Amino acid sequence: MFSVSCLEEAVDNGDNPRIRQLARESWKWGMQAIKASKKFKRDRVEVLRLLGTYSWLIGKHKKALKWWAASIETGERLKMRLDLPRTYFEIGKRLSEPQSPIRNSTASVQRNISIKPRQCSRKWPSNGIWSNWSM
Fold it and tell me: 64-101 pLDDT, tens per residue?
């Protein structure tokens, strides 16, 4: 799923022809990785997180939240202690972007990810991206 990081670089540079090519390639590899992760469960959390990042980069923000929610649910179910914080970090990184359309929409994030700020503060007590939510 190296193409997702290349896609992110192309989006940052505004390289439209490359964005389209990398978006198609990322989706193709993502679907192949989803099929493979049905057999190899330990990769599933990362694949779902990367598909969320892919969706975010192409502008499908609600779909990205759904992929990330699936990543969180899978990580908790499989007790993937290392991959789960990476998903939370990715969500925080994307929501804190200045151009994020749902940056200050706590209700939207809670509805799509179905996680409340108190759950995050119980799991990770440090003052992170979740600290600015009104509890």
Answer: 999 999 999 998 888 888 888 888 888 888 888 777 77
Find the angle CA(121)-CA(128)-CA(76) to the nearest 5 degrees.
Answer: 50
Under DSSP, the state recorded for 51 is H
Q: Residue 1's Cα: distance from chain center in Å?
A: 14
In the predicted structure, residue 5 carries a pLDDT above the cut 60: yes
Query: 33 and 47 in contact (C-beta within 8 Å)?
Result: yes
Q: Which amino acid type is present at position 130?
A: W
Residue with structure tokens 């003052």?
A: 127
Per domain, the residue ranges of the chain are 41-132
The model carries a pTM of: 0.71
